[in-house]
Amino acid sequence: MYARTVPASAVALLSATALLLPGSAAQATAPAGQHDAPAVIAHRGASAYAPENTLAAVDAADRLGIDWVENDVQRTRDGELVVVHDDSLARTTDVEQLFPGRAPWKIKDFTAAEIAKLDAGSWFGHAYAGARVPTLKQYLNRVDRNHQKLLLEIKVPALYPGIERDTLRVLRQEGWLDRRHVKHSLVIQGFGADSVKEVHRQRPDLTTGFLGTPAVADLPEYAAFTDQINPTHTSLTADYVTAVHKLKGVHGRKLRVNTWTVNDAAGAVRVRDFGVDGIITNTPDVVQEAVCS
User: Could you tell me which residues come within 8 angstroms of residue 235 by beta carbon, excluding any fewer than 6 positions away?
Assistant: First the structure.
């Protein structure tokens, strides 16, 4: 999911805020007559305060007391799954300096060993110089160590045939397909309906989400293979949320709505009052305070 990058100067805010917030994010209840507070999901980790999709961003979310983090998964030339948003390494690493003759620097054209050499933090701020692009295995282990939960997005599946199978294999190897994780700590989502269907076909017990805003008339088709409809906040209305909630997803529970990417208090209150179930945000501390006040 694309969203505005917050300046590196926001790093200072993290240190101050982390001292004020509790160690875990509780689901609070809004005043009478309003909706319960939605879950707050740290977009690519707490990406306003640390370089996106790095272990530092996961830890930043943890220090802010945020239970849920979102990430993006792609595949290297030699089959390793790595956590990066863009299908090119150019924006968030120093790949152009280390490998100047290999434009356009697509992830699928680099080996895992080559990607492991890249600096994925300096672009964000000097404090993060030397941060690495994590493998999916490393990312899962960090999220687990922090007792956090994961909203995992399979990126551009058309570039990586079979990535659903590969993702599920790594999840299984790292213990993420046990009953506890499957029931409480893991959602797999994507923009590709066929990809989400494939995840559901291979592991029908998993919770899945579709990224987008299908027409209301088409929602029953999506409810046949997913549990969540996760639209951009700019496409959202209260009526749309109500229409989604009227349907049951593939596991017989009410379809849920997680919206993205909301980074300010007013926007958070707006979508909360629409009745969304979750808010994906670069600034989880700001959203958490707004929706729980």
Answer: 213
Contact in structure between 43 and 261 (CB atoms under 8 Å): yes
0.85 surpassed by pTM: yes
- Note if 251 is an active site residue: no
Which residues have C-beta within 8 Å of that of residue 66, sequence separation ≥ 6? 25, 40, 41, 42, 46, 148, 284, 285, 288
Known catalytic residue at 200: no
What SS3 class is residue 23? coil
Of 147, 108, 134, nearest to 51 by C-alpha is 134
Name the amino acid, one letter, at 90: A
pLDDT, tens only, 165-220? 999 999 999 999 999 999 999 999 999 999 999 999 999 999 999 999 999 999 99
How far is residue 249's CA from residue 256's CA, in Å, rounded to a whole number? 8
Alpha-carbon gap, residue 89 to 108, rounded angstroms: 10
From 35, 85, 126, 184, the catalytic residue: 85
55 vs 38: CA distance, rounded Å: 25
